[in-house]
Specification:
Nucleotidyltransferase, domain 5; Anhydro-N-acetylmuramic acid kinase; five-stranded mixed beta sheet; 2 domains; ATP-binding; kinase activity; single chain; eight-stranded mixed beta sheet; carbohydrate metabolism
Length: about 400
Amino acid sequence: MRVIGLMSGTSYDAIDAAAADLHLDGPDLVLKPLGTVSEAYGPGLREALAAALPPAATTLAEVCRLDTLVGQAFAAAAVRARRELCAGRAELIASHGQTVFHWTDEGQVRGTLQIGQPAWIAEATGLPVVADFRPRDIAAGGQGAPLVSLVDLLWLRGRPGVPVALNLGGIANLTAPDGTAFDTGPAGALTDAAVRRFTGRAFDADGVMAGRGTVHEPLLRRLLDEPYYARPAPKTTGKELFHEGYLLAVLADYAASPDEDVTLTLTDEDVIATLTRLTARTVADAVRSLGTAGPSRATEVIVSGGGTRNPVLMSMLEEELAGTPLRLSDDLGLPAAAKEAYAFAVLGFLTVHGLPGTDPRSTGARHAGVLGSLTPGRNGFPQIRAGAEQPVRLVLK
């Protein structure tokens, strides 16, 4: 089955589309990557999303408008992927949509909202669409994230040692071979917010600002006091917590501290450098929390996501991981920039085969669940192969 996966993460900068040929071969799910394309949100839509996201207030009218506009943007990305990557031949679209709210209450996820109305995708492509992947896991008592964990488990199975998969988007998340998976904290969320506040630009391209700054250890210690980092897995977070208002409150509280006279000389670049180190430190702490010795200790960290394009962050990660090898997912056959889009192609494939797309060890759900809702294409729903067995390994061809 030829599937197009669509993904826009918590950085909400672009829609990544990945096309794959997928089939089941005994215990293996075989994936042949066909390529990726990326469609940036127009500046007006990106600004409208930013203005509507927490902690900002919004209206149902604006939510409706954004649901339509994001759906149309996803449809355009799907049409392009079908034309450029699949020669016009595809059978299914799997759309993650754009997360705008993830409702957590004292560590329990109560609900989630991804917008990007799939009817626009189905109408533009004529293909059936699987969307709304997260709510089913939450209804079963899970965190609804990180949903790529099952794909990571299948993909890394059979690798020597204890490989850990890490994704650096707006939020960082990891998956370990024993099924442990969770959001470690902010990746680009706080640095992006600071760069927008200080410069008006979207992010710290190539880590230039971080490279010019100096990590301010007292500020870093203050940032590390965030209670989220000490909570046990499974856990998930997002821009509902790590947003510009959060950062400004921390900086204001820090500047008012009578013990920190050096705050008077803290530059914008120092703040960016410190936030970049925060990501590296919290990721490394999370990796270390998987085990300090013996078979549970990570032997390699395989990293993907937009954060891989920041050389300062990657260098800090290498320092913080203290000898644990850091590898790009490209080395194992999945493009770092679009690994999550491929992951949702896999999850869509599993859904239309009636197979679970979660591992309860990763999300904390009571049981594994078949994910998503189906929007029919022009010819209705795809044929579901009866009797398919849950794969145990993802093989790349």
